Q: What sequence folds into this?
């Protein structure tokens, strides 16, 4: 690594093989996912939508340097809004949200690259999904940089189905199995705030660079298999005004979570990230209502009573021979 | 003040006259404002909506103690959603967002009371408005507590009118005139991020308790006169799908601002405030679209080009004999 001055518009921390290898994987992952979603949308003549692709680069002189590819599909047949972004940025000082666990790197130059997506389906029976994988590298000038990985995926149903929650969690567990049996329960516990959960990990570097990268890739690679079967299963279910209204209300809560609590969003905003890319996660339309109350036993009340609870979905299913 | 232990579910910092005086003002202000809004809504038989009133108290044992009155009107003739909350809370430790300017009070027991409102009109020609007035008192056990005041109001048009911006700013200036000619320009500069701005002040205690309280009251009292004439002027203007769509898009940006950047929201969330009350500010419905572009010269483009700019509205108007 070249020592760099305060201005830090200079070479990336990991020029060469490592950065190129991770970047190559991430750009490919974005393309695979967006291609598959376009496949689900189907033929344009039949109302299938396509992603817009917006390649951007930060102008010289901005505190954060870097580039990315923002891909967004709006107004589709299956997806009302689907955003999937790749970004690769570097900055002079790691923002506070990223150094909570690494005080020795506070204020160090950093480099971050990742793919992040949130898909908002049109049919309220198809769950919203979020996935993110990222690598961060940081180091004070002259010292060897430290790399760590983060990511995960979570599923947010509007109307819950046990079968979908179980399938999603099984896919997550399978993606992590090769990296130690402790990973799925640990990363599941770390990711419980949103929907039926999923997995989330951060600051991950324990088994060394190669194994950590392999784990991140395994999670990224598992996304389509975890989500698309659920989309296929639910997208044809009929729905009406009642389900649409509940969907818009739940999206309001999702917006609240993303903007107020999500660490990735705050990292992006604090580090001067690109607002339009960060707001890729927003739904096309959302509603707020004061203290909505659904009758006990209604499918809307079941969402909270049964699905938005910490639950071992896989064990519950296997216990009940689902 | 009684020294209190860590649990701090004990007597308020300002038991007695001071708290009762400020509380009385605030509860009355909330009632005057909601009554006036119901007046604008008109007769129930003609579609005028009424506020629901929800008096709440924090259960014993929660970190934040206190009570409040949440008032919300939904689905009205003129206002699609109008939330106006009074709250009076005390907690064992002032949250970080409140102590940025007062490091000596970090972690001190505190008491906060205020009225906060956001009104979302139905007609896109009627601007969204936000107003907030509050008093905070804090002090380490055994030391004399420190009181300070904050608040302000700002106007967020969807479609801008010079006349409205000028009237709103003149009302703000008039509310502050008795407290020194420096106040309006200073507090205007402090409040520029949202809409055509307005005034905002915080950590205010310079002229002593009585004069600071009087200034807060003058701002609270000025709200209806600053806003209602604009509502009366615009609520009958005809609009269609195009204006509605732009309104929903602008509301999406408003949500982003409130949840990501607004210090009051963060104070509430960090201090364990009541989520439902905090989310009073959310619109009934909002939309997001990627990089919306409006043709130069269109009324939608004019909003950004002319109205969402730092501007001395009063001087511009008097210069042009508006």
A:
């Amino acid at each position: 690594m070249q020592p760099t001055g305060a201005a830090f518009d200079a070479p990336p921390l990991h020029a060469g093989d490592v950065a190129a290898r991770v970047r190559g994987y991430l750009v490919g992952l974005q393309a695979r996912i967006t291609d598959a979603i376009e496949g689900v949308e189907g033929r344009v003549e039949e109302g299938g939508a396509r992603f817009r692709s917006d390649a951007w680069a930060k102008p010289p002189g901005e505190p954060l340097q870097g580039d990315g590819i923002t891909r967004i599909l709006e107004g589709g047949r299956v997806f009302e809004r689907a955003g999937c972004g790749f970004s690769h940025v570097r900055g002079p000082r790691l923002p506070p949200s990223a150094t909570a666990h690494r005080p020795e790197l506070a204020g160090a130059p950093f480099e971050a690259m990742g793919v992040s997506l949130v898909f908002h389906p049109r049919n309220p029976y198809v769950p919203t999904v979020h996935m993110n994988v990222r690598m961060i590298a940081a180091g004070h000038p002259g010292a060897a940089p430290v790399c760590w990985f983060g990511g995960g995926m979570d599923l947010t149903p509007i109307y819950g189905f046990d079968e979908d929650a179980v399938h999603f969690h099984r896919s997550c567990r399978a993606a992590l199995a090769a990296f130690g049996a402790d990973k799925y329960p640990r990363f599941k516990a770390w990711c419980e705030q949103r929907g039926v959960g999923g997995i989330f990990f951060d600051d991950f570097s324990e088994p060394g660079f190669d194994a950590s990268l392999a784990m991140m890739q395994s999670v990224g690679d598992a996304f389509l298999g975890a989500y698309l079967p659920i989309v296929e299963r639910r997208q044809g279910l009929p729905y009406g005004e009642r389900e649409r209204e509940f969907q818009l209300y739940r999206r309001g809560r999702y917006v609240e979570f993303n903007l107020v609590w999500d660490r990735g969003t705050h990292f992006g905003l604090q580090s001067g990230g690109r607002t339009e890319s960060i707001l890729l996660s927003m739904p096309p339309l959302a509603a707020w209502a004061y203290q909505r109350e659904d009758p006990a036993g209604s499918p809307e009340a079941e969402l909270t009573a049964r699905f938005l609870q910490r639950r071992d979905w896989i064990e519950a299913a296997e216990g009940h021979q689902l």
In short: Chain A touches chain B through 29 residues (CB under 8 Å). Chain A has a mean pLDDT of 87. The two ends of chain A are 53 Å apart (CA to CA).
